[in-house]
Amino acid sequence: MADSGSVREDSRIVIEDDWPGYSLDLFTYPEHYCGDIESVYIPHGIIMDRTERLARNIMDDLGDHDIVVLCVLKGGYKFCADLVEFIKGLSRNSSKSLLMRVDFIRLKSYLNDQSTEDLHILGGEDLSVLSGKNVLIVEAIVDTGKTMKALLEHVETFRPKMVKVAGLLVKRVPNGLGTPPDYVGFEIPNRFVVGYALDYNEYFRDLNHICVISEAAKIKYKV
Ligand code: HPA
Ligand code: MG
Fold it and tell me: Domain Phosphoribosyltransferase, which positions (predicted)?
């Protein structure tokens, strides 16, 4: 992870606290979520364009290495898939060719819209493949940083050569834990967002845009 001093001010899109999102009338979304979402916070197209740029930054930095992409499930599956596609596209049109393996780890720490104390690592691949490798952890959202810290400690036990982190979203939270990801898509306010594989109790992963859910939906899908 980069120390905060080496993260450039312009290295992320900052969404301010007073950003209300776009009106739902301006976009399409699945009809079954009618009444469940309040606004379109980040439209799918902007997510894709930003991801393409992150792919280029990653190519510039890691282009001639072999890397193991470690996709953090479940929320990271869309970001990871799109990021890998963009990197592949850039590799095809470049003298650099980035050999990628893609592995998965499954974590769970949220119930309803609250982070729970315990992080569960729910299996996935045998991570001994990370030993001696350049690892790119791909995570949809970093908020308190607790999950990322625990994950980094876990990954380090497999003695990788290098670890970088790509986070699509980073939340501005009070007392956030230390180091930001090396590659950040968007910095967002401390609000609960869904869509683009981010869930609320497993719902809303099938929404392309990143959205804010309504209070009614928080009750409707509560467990
Ligand atoms: N949305 C969905 N999942 C999450 C969030 C969020 O805002 N923060 C951490 N996990
Ligand atoms: Mg979740």
Answer: 46-200
